[in-house]
Design brief:
heterotrimer, A alpha/beta (about 325), B alpha/beta (about 150), C alpha/beta (about 280), A: four-stranded antiparallel beta sheet, 9 helices, about 25% helix, about 20% strand, globular, C: about 280 residues, six-stranded mixed beta sheet, 8 helices, about 10% strand
Chain lengths: ~325, ~150, ~280
Amino acid sequence: MADIKKETMRKLLAKLAESMTLVGPSDNGKVVEYKKTDADSVLMDDRISYKSPKEFYFPQTEKLLTFSRDEAVENTDVPPTVIFGAKPCDLEALRVMNAVFMEGRYADPFFDRHMSQNLIIGVGCLKKKPGCFCDELGLDMEFSDFCDIMLTDTGDTYKVEHLSEKGEKALAQLPETAKVTCANKRTAKKPDGDVIGLSADIEDITLFDSVNWSDLTATCQGCGMCTYICPTCHCFEFKDVSKDGCVERYRCWDSCIYPKFTLHASGHNPRASRADRYRQRVLHKYLYVKKNTGHAACTGCGRCLRSCPVGVNIKTVAKAVMEVAK
Amino acid sequence: MSQTNTADFTPTIVAFLCNWCSYAGADLAGTGRQQYPPSIRVVRVPCSGRINPIYILKALVDGADGVMVSGCHPGDCHYLAGNYYARRRFTVLKKLLTVAGVNPDRVHFTWVSASEGARFAQVVTDVTDKVRALGESEYKSRRGGERA
Amino acid sequence: MSVLETQAQKVRDSAKKLLADATAQTVIGYADEGVDGLCVPVFITDVKDVGRLVWNRRSVPNLASYLIGRKGKTAIVAKPCDARAVVNLIVENQIKRDDVHIIGMDCPGMTDAAGAALHACETCQVNTSPVFDERIENAEVKPVSPEKRDAERGLDENLARFTKEMEKCILCFSCRQACYGCYCQTCFMDRGVPDWHPESPDMGAKMLYHLGRAMHLAGRCVECGACENACASGVDVRYLIREVTGFVKELYGYDTGLSLEDQPAMLTYQPDDREVGFLGGEAHG
């Protein structure tokens, strides 16, 4: 571990930005968001972005291939990107995404390309923001090792540690005087107390029929914004668009909160009500992904709590679900 | 915009014409051998009141250089009042487009009756001149681009 | 007790009475149970839960849309803008006047988490409910100052502003869901044939959506600001609709949701309506 000044970090980012796209938290005048920016204007304070940086490894719309009658050309064009300032909740979420897309029977080549091209620089949180509940999920708000470089904010300086070869290489570009020498790797703090979670052994999901879903989600307006800003939501759909005699296939975000998500061609919708759809969201997060990958797909970043226009609280719902699973 | 302001540029203008007056007016312009620029692509609709403002937006977003809408003169609507409702809608739409930075000369509303073949040709000529002066639509590039 | 707290107490008393004598089966109001002090909507059906109801300057969400499709008589704690929304829903035959009991709140204006007045509240024109079954007064609510419209801008400036706002938008459609007036069963943006929604969240898609929605809300917006409060990306969602609303008022003299009798501006006409912006007609100012 070593200390480097924030100014030096900006210089390093500027250097990296010469060959890569720099993405970091920036202030759009009303809220903080991750977007393409430059080394001078990237925010280095403790504010949290309203949405997660997932669009830079799982874009909202991504062209997968162009095909005609005779051939199909895969889109391999992925801009190398430096993602600066991802919070530990975002990094833990990336671990989940990685498990979803890369582990198991199929590996997603598009996600893989993003992961191998991206350099991810995490920054630990200094304090909990309103709505944050990473501690209740057993995560450390200051540290996650699922990144290339981890920074800890100490005022004018960052404590730096590199967690991958890619990170080490990037840090080697620092000016001679600020070289990071050792890699005294930390590990995440273990949680104390109970954590929100369901056992992955639950087989009978009719158990959850006894949860009063319609009352718990009565106020939900069904906007689905929670799924767009969530760091772990990863549902998508495909869209084919004909263009110049070829067809372009896109992968676009979708959301289980939208009625169209499960609408059959016949007109039947197996998840007809908002309560049904919210049930899917909660159980998918806390149970189904856990069954498949071993990780719960919620990292307690609190974004859905903070941004929901009518204050629907996933934590309350998750706790009600845990009650019946006891 | 390489083609801007050149006299050879023929803009693509989507024309929404009501079945009862303006479409018949266009027919009359044809049978009367009236000359007008080959710039319009006609979409025949039952009534100007049937035109959802979204159609006009969609035409602009999908690459039309201009849009022209024409119906029966107020008072002459085949369905009695369709064009009165349309008039309010188009008035508001044009204001909205201006506020959103769309050049008002790209979108035109007018009335042409079934007997006004010559007027139809004149309207198309005028509209084409105005749109041509603006050059190719800047909204074309708004499609399929990278996320702004 | 502060004036607001007195109002809150009156809300609770009223809710208790309405539920006890079965005037209403449900009372929709606010509970102080959100993050950062945000009051969230709550449905009270039992007299013993009445204590959850609050009223303060963080009672932000517009509750009117919860009335659509509800069975039985419902009482609603309505800010003046919510009451206007309820009135317009009645005018548009989405709910019946007899099915709703409007508890009209005099409103001092709502604030964000930091205590600053919300954008919509800064320019509020109606701070007492125009239609109500009972009014809960607040002596501190002063008459509003005359409306200030945005100054006319040139076309380039308009375009620059539009582009600047739209760049922030992620097309999540939460403004639509938060809007009382967006009650279409299937929004045009969700339809598959024709495919209005282009594949990519680019400027074209945003232009279609925001202008299309603004057109649908012409003469229907009650200026509650629910759309901009819902926007997590900080887009000034309402500025286009604000211009349209002002224009409709100026041209057709119509204000949404102030009376149960008025015909909505876009559902009626005058044979001599002005033809602003038509070929050969008046130009837009």
